[in-house]
Amino acid sequence: MVSLSVQDVADIIKVLTALEGLAIEDACKNATETDLAELDSQHADMVMAYQGGDLMGYFALNQSIHLKIVECAGNPALTRIYQTESARVRRFRFAGNEVPTRWADAVEEHALILSVLRRREAGLLRELLKSHHQRGWQVAKAVLENERAQES
After folding, report:
1. Cα separation of 94 and 108, whole Å?
2. How does pLDDT run across 73-104, given as a tens digit for each residue?
């Protein structure tokens, strides 16, 4: 397994944010009612996992929601690259949810993200997702830097 530095992870998060941003316009145009219903169902399950304190279940659903939004763009190359890079940093992104206040904020952010997707407001959705990722990364980065400092 290749070890990633904090900077490596920051770079990948930046790419993932850009890839989601690239997907948004087409996702807003192409998302079907079936897609939106699937996202609503995943979100409801994610909220239940949060309320039950199931961090692993929550995180899996969180990642699934982000992937589904990218898939709605209908661009297999974009989806493939997103999945590959997302898998590389999955454990690092998980760290941000270990902070209870960030976890609570992320749940609220997801509700807003899905509402804006349903309204098909691409510009606002792009900004919300960018902010969502930046906030999550700042918390995860602090957790990771603290872990690395303790290991030294």
Report:
1. 17
2. 999 999 999 999 999 998 888 887 888 888 99
